[in-house]
Amino acid sequence: MTDPVPVRRALLSVSDKTGLVEFARFLAGRGTEILSTGGTAKALREAGIPVKDVSEHTGFPEILDGRVKTLVPQVHGGLLGRRDLEEHQAQMRQHAIAPIDLVAVNLYPFEATVAKGAGFEDCIENIDIGGPAMIRSAAKNHAHVTVLTEPAQFAEVQAEIAAQGGTRLATRRRLAAAAYARTAAYDAAISRWFAGQLGEEFPPRLAFAGILKQTLRYGENPHQQAGFYLDGSDRPGIATARQVQGKELSYNNLNDTDAAFECVAEFERPAIVIVKHANPCGVAIADDLASAWDAALRCDPVSAFGGIVAANRPLDAAAAEKIAAIFTEVVVAPDADAAAQAVFARKKNLRLLLTGAMPDPAAPGLTFRSVAGGFLAQSRDAGRVTAEALKVATRRAPTPQELEDLLFAFRVCKHVKSNAIVYAKGLATVGIGAGQMNRVESSRIAAWKSEAAARAAGLPEPLAKGSVVASDAFFPFADGLETAAAAGVTAVIQPGGSIRDAEVIEAADKAGLAMVFTGMRHFRH
User: Fold this and answer.
1) DSSP H helical segments within 229-332, as ranges?
2) In angstroms, rounded to a whole number, what is the distance separating the alpha carbons of residues 239 and 224?
3) What's the CA gap between 471 and 371, in Å, rounded?
4) Radius of gyration of the chain (CA)
């Protein structure tokens, strides 16, 4: 085996023709014979580059509407034949199989066809067969054959051939690994689509793939390694965001920013969400973002320091000035006007992310979590409770203002780690208790935070006084509700369904509270 391996014959067959002509012209200029098919051959001829049709090379015509054109021994023998085995070489000579030293193939655009909502038959016809077969053959024989699957690889290979007279084994091996990753991702997309067509949300084998967007400095802690991968769904958020300024994003930044942006997407009116360690520490909706910021910050100004801020409207200068007044790690929004960007530019370490759009909180999809030996998959929590779905459980029904606050608080609860308790008043959180091992402690912590926030604001009584309370799951005992009542709430929203519902209802009636059941819980572990 020689290394580097010269490229005397190349087969080019690509759907994405970015960089194709320049690369092919370089190869032709070095005397490489170029084989090609269909649209690729046409593009090369139009560019004045000598090209030989694969059918002419193999002596076998394209048949079955082009479904069979490269699935022949003259192609795969040329790719798989080992140059270092005389037996292989003798068989290739016997059957007039010429070696192929380089393959550049990117596949039929199956993923893009599905994404644009094409019909079943169109999707089937965009499943590439010959392309993956050639890629796999060339990658298996990478000791002798170079395989390219992305236009971005052309420049590197061209430079190496120009400098070395061919490609090096280390390069071919790396390209082979990338090739198998590409075909694996392609097959994963097809299998996921087929499962969807069959209505199998959880098929017997579940495959998915990601594209590395960013290698991170480290994971949750400096001794851990991490990377950020895209799944191809293009859900607006951190995957689609453009970083306008600031330091490199960390693993924790990305995780917290995603939590904040998904939460703020729940609201139709202008909203601000402040997140710390993946939990909201302040949420509010108002007529404008600046007012929403004031209300959200008041809930927990201590935790907001060094937090993540998400908005569901394009940021303006008034909101930017307020947000930039405290130390903030990340600000994420669908957009920001020039004046807002100028304000943030004064904080060089602040990361500003603009996503271009808002995610749909009701959209279907799967979420994943690794466990030892496997992973858990579940449908996204797209549940939303409306006023019509509520069941009044107490003698007193909530007032219109209480009802509005209850629905707001329950939407926030969906994004708070269990056990979750959210106090709200005037469409703003005034106390949040998250992630405790029992609901009573979450209620107490939320009430304590409302007292601390009131002291920080110079107010005479806790923010929770006159608020409503939301619980992500039912109160198993009356004690959690009684703690909220002691904090000054007037109304309660919870899923209901406990064997002790009657006891909890009795406690609510005794305290003069209005309480509604949602019939839906929002655990978030």
Assistant:
1) 251-264, 289-299, 301-304, 317-323
2) 22
3) 27
4) 30
pLDDT tens digits, one per residue of 64-87: 777 777 777 888 888 988 888 888
Closest CA to 68 of 144, 130, 20: 130
Residue 448: in which H helix or E strand, if any?
helix 439-457
Q: Name the packing angle between helices 169-197 and 154-164 (round to 10°).
A: 160
Dihedrals phi, psi of 214, to nearest 5 degrees: -160, 130
Q: How far apart are CA 436 and CA 459, in angstroms?
A: 28
Chain-centroid distance of CA 207 in Å reads 16
Which residues does 41 contact at the CB level (< 8 Å), separation at least 6? 51, 53
d(CA 410, CA 489): 15
pLDDT at 520 over 80: yes
β 226-230/211-216 pair status: antiparallel
Q: How many C-beta atoms lie closer than 10 Å to residue 401's C-beta?
A: 14
Query: What is the set of active-site residues?
Result: 140, 277
User: Are the C-beta atoms of residues 426 and 269 closer than 8 Å to each other?
Assistant: no
If one counts every other C-beta atom within 10 angstroms of the C-beta of residue 373, the result is: 5
Q: Which residues pair with 515 in a beta bridge?
A: 492
How confident is residue 157, by pLDDT bands cut at 50, 70 and 90?
very high
Beta-carbon contacts of 483 under 8 Å, excluding residues fewer than 6 positions away, are: 440, 443, 444, 447
Helices (H), ranges, 13-96 = 20-29, 38-46, 54-58, 73-80, 86-94
Q: 0.90 cut: is pTM over it?
A: no
91-100, 161-170, 474-483: which range is least confident on average?
A: 91-100
Task: With both helix axes pointing from N to C terminus, report the angle between 130-140 and 169-197 in degrees, rounded to the nearest 10.
Answer: 150
pLDDT at 285 over 70: yes
Q: What is the C-alpha to C-alpha distance for residues 126 and 121, in angstroms, rounded to an integer? A: 9
C-alpha 275/C-alpha 309 separation (Å) is 6
Q: What is the distance between the terminal CA atoms of the chain, rounded to a whole angstrom? A: 55
Could you tell me the strand order of the sheet in which 514-517 lies? 391-392, 514-517, 491-494, 468-471, 421-424, 429-433
Q: Which two tokens stand for residue 307?
A: 């937090």
H or E element in which residue 107 lies? none
